[in-house]
Amino acid sequence: MNNVILIGRLARDPELSYTPGNQTAICHFTLAVDRPVSQGKERQADFIRITVFGRQAENCDRFLQKGRQAAVSGRIQTGSYKNREGVTVYTTDVIADRVEFLGGGNGGNGDGASRQGSSQRANGFGSNDFDGNSMNSGNTSSGNNDFGGLGDLDIPDTFQAAEDDIPF
Asked: According to CATH, what is the number of the domain 4-111?
């Protein structure tokens, strides 16, 4: 099984491009995901490259920006290529099946979910991934969120994302 779920903040603005043949949208961005920290230790983060395809890629480019919090569900894919100097470079990317836009981030043009007609709750967890796929189990009033069909996560209604946890 190759399945990953990440929550973090964008380290830089997304980059959108299109394939030459069939003009499929491809969006790349880097997600800064905090590592667990022990008391008295300095916070650290992993910077994970995310790749999204299709309509969802266009929505990521439109609504995400540096500092914005997002949840990603997908799979890990590794690869390699030779750079200009002929050295083999190994890559590890997350190919996203779903991207959930969380929190307002810092700056920007507000919350994209309200412009899309989503029923995003005040705590930052929405019920639509802007690709027409429902992210909830159907009971939006319970406070539980079915993230990608992986079962109910017990998320309290008082959950608030901290705006100052960007690691840079």
From this structure: 2.40.50.140
